[in-house]
Amino acid sequence: MKVHGIVVFDAIGKPSGGITKGALYYIGSYDQCNSIKAHIPANIYLGNVFRKEERRYTTKFCRAEFNVSDSFVQSMNVDTRGLVLKLNWGVCVPASCHSEDIARLFSMGPVKLPVNRVACLQNPDLKKDTSAIVAICILCVFGILVALATFSEGMMGALPVSKREEQNYFGRINNGFVSDEKHIIKNGYAPDALELKQTASMSTGLYTTLSETNGYEKIDKSKSDIEASSSSKTDSCTLNVLAPAEHPYEKLSNGDGKSLSHNPNVSPEISNTELEAKVNDTGVKVENVADKEAVRKVHPIIKAFSLITNMPKILNGKKSKGAINCVHGIRFVSMLWIILGHTYNYGVVSQSDSQTTQNLIDADGLFKRFSFQGIMAAGFAVDTFFLLSGFLVAYLTLKDLRKRKITGGYMFMYYFHRFWRLTPLYMIVLMTFSCLYKYMGDGPLWPAAIKAADYCKTNWWTNVLYVNNLVNNHEQCLGWSWYLANDMQFYILSPIFIFTIFWYAPVGITLAVLVGAAGVASAFYEEYVTGGDMFTMNRIPDYWQNVYTVPWTRIAAYLVGIIFGWIMVKYDKLKTLSFKKAVVGWIITLGVGIFISYITYTYRKEDADAWPKWVLSLYESTTRPIFAACVAWVIFACHHNRGGFINSVLSWSGIIPLSRLTYACYLVHPACMMLKIYSKRNLIYISDFDVAYLYMGHTCMTFMIAFIFSVTFEAPFLALEKIFFQRKK
Questions:
Q1: Domain ranges of the chain
Q2: Helix, strand, or coil here: 287?
């Protein structure tokens, strides 16, 4: 008993140094407390009471929270930016104790401490959690599908490709011509003759006529007008529509340089039923045509879930001649910037049930440093994504409209593809985090509830409809998903601007400029009325709801992207930008970008005078579209051979696979951060070196988990869309 008492006492938190630096959590030993299994033998005195019966008990870890007086906080002479300082004390008590018992415990004795709240951390019971069980079952179904599909494609690779794949990849060939004995032209389609020219890395969207040819020719599918990765805001695929071959005997080839020749054993009018026991393109005989056709229909679906198919799609780093490859690097760098900003925001200096840092007061000094202004400007990375989204949808759609008419089917696919592109992975992440986060970690820092996940139980439908930034936006499920809601809302409105620009550019551009100006004006007004910024939202929560997440204050950067898409189409044939224009453009872009990122130092530094409200409002409303315009110039210069070393870095082939993961990264990275921080057994020390290590760990883990989610959930759904909608064609 004495040994167990010592262990229990050792597991209780004790005051330490650094209280004036914000070390206000006496953390104790969580694992030691939960591992205690005490035994009280029979027939002993316990205190002054004689115990005849033997007793056994376990212990549990509880966290008692106490209010900190305002006078103590004021004596520190520090701006907490709305964070409420609390004193937390980790205690180890018998498992039979209740929260009320612990509160009474602290009220006993000569020094009575009024307890604000007690949270006892115990592992939840999975058997009683229906939502968690359903989520696990759904994830298991996907895991089994992926495993079976991968096994089928890897171990049973003799499955033939579907007719639809043959048509899309190999084109229409004159009936009755073959490349060799093993390659039979069936119903006019020959394997290895022609290939699909695909713009998107992983998905199929809008199909357009790319070129007309006088005959069939081998096409390198790695070449495209623009490579839009799987995380692009608009993916599209351009289909080569080929004219009949003038001299099929001479022009057709099977991909290895051999000319196609007429096969006297195969009639041009041969039917499916006459092809029994023929050899398919994989060299495997199929005795029953009906079975073969059934396999042909199932095989693309199997490949859709196969890791053998999906992993190369993501990891492929090939660049296409003429593609706007710098977009990949900009997307990747922007994601790194967002993760850096959120490293501080999620778990380190954010508000939760318990404090996670041992020197929180030092964080105030970070905000006043000149070098830290670049980190606090990470919000501009979101505007970069708005720019890229508007640019890609405008650029691709304007080029597409040159080749096709706007029909009901066109508009249906325009919107359906977007919804299908974003929603499946989005809902999988939402379900996984909101239903299972309780079982993903524990520890003395683990909060009683993660609101960003718990709000999903009642407000998940706002995320499905992409209105979570407007409806119940003070209780957002996955709070960081506000960006997706804005992006979808902008996408829905984008045809108004894009179609008008296509029909009559001056009117369309004027409309986009006027709406963008209205967005700037609304941001100015909302900021002037509300006040605040990203790092004072705990003190001014209305900033998040009225200024930061609503579409009318954020649309300007997206419209900059739409206008830039028109500019890129207009100058599509421009090969190289003039040197003088490039120099002037780079000087202005770098100067303006750095200026708006670091000018905030003038009012955040030590003993600085606060900016007037109108200056803060002007900064909040104008700098977002200005920064978007700076990024647009970078793309324009790099694509027109004036990017130099910057273009070499942004267009590096090694970045392309990472760029494809940015959508999944954005969805999972806050969850990864919170699970890591809240599962720690000790407090974080805020320093440049420690946070740098934390940031690199967050980044690596985010991209690894994003890869798993992308290859397991995102890629299959994109492939299924291609399969089902191409079959209808």
A1: 2-122, 144-315, 326-569+652-728
A2: coil
